[in-house]
Design brief:
This protein is α+β, with helices and mostly antiparallel strands and 710 residues long. The chain has helices at residues 17-28, 32-82, 85-104, 108-130, 144-155, 175-194, 232-241, 288-296, 326-330, 332-341, 346-355, 367-373, 412-415, 420-447, 449-463, 478-514, 517-524, 547-551, 556-577, 602-623, 656-666, 677-683, and strands at 198-202, 209-212, 250-257, 263-274, 277-285, 311-315, 378-383, 389-396, 405-411, 531-545, 580-585, 588-593, 629-644, 650-654, 672-675, 688-697, 701-709.
């Protein structure tokens, strides 16, 4: 017994699409575990990310308060010291003592010893800092007091450089040394107690540092003259010297300071006021270590919740750090290797090693520092200064006198470590779920997706232009009905597409009959205002002589037929010569050569067109047994061309060139071609012209004209 035909009616009804979808949904229920796992993973990641950002923001805000509190504290302590009787008396008495030493002068042999000390101990260090050897005279003290005091407290100081401050009395018997023995132990103790690296007293009148705790080479030197006049300490002294306010504080950001070997130093000054007059400025040299201790929490990153890679750091407006990053303290070898890997120069690394701090030498220019220095708080995942993905919280600091930002960060890898195990577990579950999906997909490809693939292929072929496509109808369910409907739709669309294509061709031809092809293309591309200038084209006007009288007694249909036959022959000639017909007005014909596509021999082409129009007119008149002639005017020059109108487009020309061409026609001789000088000059070697002399042209006066002989 033979099998029933697969397309015949003897085949039982196929399995319905509803039943297939039901079975599919049951199978997809097994995949829900995978979907739930993926959603759970991302939600866990988002929740952890939010928790990390919240923790970083809290840590940053805490650090910001700590740094701001530190600066408020040292400002208050500096103001308190500046207003104390000890500092006021010391300032007044040191000024007098320094003036006495200035008047006494310094012996030549003493000056020589100071100069030798500078040459041996200071200039080599400055050479390393500057990269060149400076002139010794640029850094030597000026005046008797600076030489005298630097000799006794620096050159002859029995202590090493880092312990010069331990010398209370130089033993030279001077009034300055007597005062120094009284006040120096107190000032030294105050600097140590408050946490300042150095205390200085500046005389606003002379600009000298008349006292310092550390006795570096700036001791008794001028901040108004010489090499230190542009330093940040000079700026702090200059500002505070003008403010007779006991509450005033002048803070200057970190900058390289030559007396400290070029190390980065920040200064804070307060005016010393006696009876309402500023008699001095008390200057504190801020300690990098103290600021680092505040920002790093005394190097207790893990105890403060920063984990293994988290940290906080300060950045100034130049994107250079104002506190050392964590890696600088924990693993310097790795720190320098990472700096080099992200593009730090060898010079920057050498400077960090030389000064023992990355302050003013490590640049951190990231999305976080850019936003924070512009005054914006925020959080986000960025590429950190080590070149690795980082979660960060950033914001500005409220410290008057400086524009600093604080960033708290932790590596993304560490922040998301807790969900690594969850990801591995989900991958295992997902693998099992994918096995189920694979088995289901194999069944669906046979039972359900086969016809859909045929239908999809048919749609693609149809969209590619195959209007004869037909898909097989393999089932009698809803998909089979869809395939049948598709085949019918394709046939219907094919018929409609044929009609549309015919209409498009007609419309295209109509548009090209109205406008030049390049202009039509620009309009189709969406260009609304088309106006172009052309430096050199040739315009021709032709007008039929006696046409009105000739056609006055003719029926309208015959008039149109006669004129259409003539102008159609003009159009053929224009097309042959590459000339653009512009318009016809009554029995006048206007054309141009050289636009919208420029051509080099536009004048020659137009003159040949004019000759052909004369011949065509003669032939047409003979064929119709009428008496009719044509005048042609030709001119070359610049024009403006464009499309005008909205509902009925027209491509037209404007300019003196057009007007003069029209006048050449209206003032011409019947059955001839009249041209202007520009045309004559271009073609006088190719054609025979007869000068007509100057003719009267409306709006132009007398204009030279030539008649073409042919």
């Amino acid at each position: 017994m033979s099998s029933p035909d697969v397309t015949g009616s003897s085949r039982p009804a196929g399995w319905g699409l509803a039943a297939k979808l039901f079975t599919t949904l049951v199978l997809l229920g097994a995949i829900a575990v995978l979907v739930t796992g993926v959603l759970g993973y991302f939600r866990a990641r988002d929740a952890l990310e939010k928790a990390v950002f919240d923790q970083l923001t809290a840590a940053r805000q805490t650090k910001a308060r700590q740094v701001e509190t530190y600066f408020r504290t040292i400002k208050a302590e500096l103001r308190l010291l500046a207003t104390s009787k000890m500092v006021v008396d010391a300032t007044r008495e040191f000024r007098i003592a320094v003036d006495q030493l200035d008047r006494a002068g310094a012996p030549p042999e003493l000056r020589q010893k100071v100069g030798d000390w500078y040459a041996e101990n200071f200039i080599p260090g400055m050479t390393r800092t500057l990269g060149r050897q400076p002139a010794l005279s640029d850094y030597l003290p000026v005046g008797g007091a600076p030489y005298y005091l630097q000799y006794h407290y620096i050159v002859e100081n029995p202590n090493p450089a880092e312990r010069r401050k331990l010398l209370d009395d130089a033993g030279d018997g001077s009034e300055y040394s007597r005062l120094h023995a009284i006040y120096h132990p107190l000032m030294r103790a105050a600097a140590t107690t408050v946490g300042f690296f150095d205390f200085m007293i500046a005389d606003p009148k002379s600009g000298r540092l008349i006292y310092t705790v550390e006795k570096e080479v700036d001791f008794t030197t001028s901040l108004q003259l010489g090499p230190y006049r542009r330093t940040n300490v000079a700026a702090a002294v200059a500002r505070c010297s003008q403010i007779a306010d006991p509450s005033a504080i002048c803070l200057e950001d970190f900058a390289s300071y030559a007396p400290s070997g070029g190390a980065p130093i920040a200064f804070m000054g307060a005016p010393v006021i006696d009876q309402g007059v500023v008699i001095g400025v008390l200057v504190a040299q801020l300690s990098n270590d103290e600021i680092d201790n505040v920002v790093t929490g005394n190097r207790r990153w893990r105890q403060e919740g920063f984990g293994d890679t988290g940290e906080a750091y300060l950045v100034g407006p130049d994107y250079l750090v104002r506190s050392a990053p964590r890696a600088f303290y924990e693993n310097r070898e790795n720190y320098f290797a990472e700096l080099k890997s992200v593009g730090a120069s060898d010079e920057e690394i050498v400077d960090i090693q030389r000064y023992g701090t990355p302050v003013l030498h490590q640049r951190i220019d990231t999305k976080a520092t850019q936003a924070a220095l512009s005054g914006v708080e925020g959080t986000g995942e960025i590429i950190g200064y080590r070149g690795v993905p980082t979660l960060a919280s950033w914001g500005p600091l409220a410290i008057p006198g400086v524009n600093w930002a604080l960033v708290a960060k932790i590596d993304s890898a560490e922040a998301f470590a807790p969900i690594a195990q969850l990801r591995r577990d989900l991958l295992l579950v997902g693998g099992l779920a994918l096995l189920v999906v694979g088995a289901t997909a194999a069944w669906l490809s046979r039972a359900l997706l086969g016809p859909l693939r045929d239908l999809t292929a048919g749609v693609k072929r149809f969209s590619a232009g195959d209007y004869a496509v037909s898909v097989p109808v393999r089932t009698r369910d809803e998909i089979g009905e869809l395939c049948s409907a598709f085949n019918g739709m394709v046939e219907d669309l094919h018929q409609k597409n044929v009609v549309i294509e015919n209409k498009n061709r007609e419309n295209e031809q109509l548009l090209l009959n109205v406008l030049p092809a390049p202009i039509a293309n620009r309009l189709r591309a969406g260009e609304e205002r088309i106006a172009d200038g052309f430096a050199e084209v040739t315009v021709a006007f032709a007008d039929l002589v006696g046409f009105t009288a000739l056609t006055s007694g003719m029926p309208p249909h015959d008039v149109v037929t006669f004129l259409n036959g003539l102008f159609t022959r003009f159009d053929v000639a224009a097309n042959d010569l590459g000339i653009e017909k512009i318009k016809t007005v009554g029995d006048a014909y206007m054309a141009v050569c050289g636009l919208p596509v420029p051509v080099a021999n536009h004048a020659e082409r137009m003159v040949r067109m004019a000759i052909r129009m004369v011949h065509i007119t003669r032939e047409h008149a003979m064929e119709h047994n009428v008496s009719m002639k044509v005048r042609v005017g030709v001119n070359s020059g610049p024009v403006v061309a464009g499309v005008i109108g909205k509902s009925k487009y027209i491509y037209d020309l404007w300019g003196d060139t057009v007007n003069l061409a029209s006048r050449m026609e209206s003032g011409g001789i019947p059955d001839s071609v009249q041209v202007t000088r520009p045309v004559y000059e271009q073609l006088k070697d190719q054609f025979v012209f007869e000068p007509r002399g100057a003719i009267e042209v409306k709006g132009k006066g007398k204009v030279e004209a030539w008649v073409l002989r042919f």
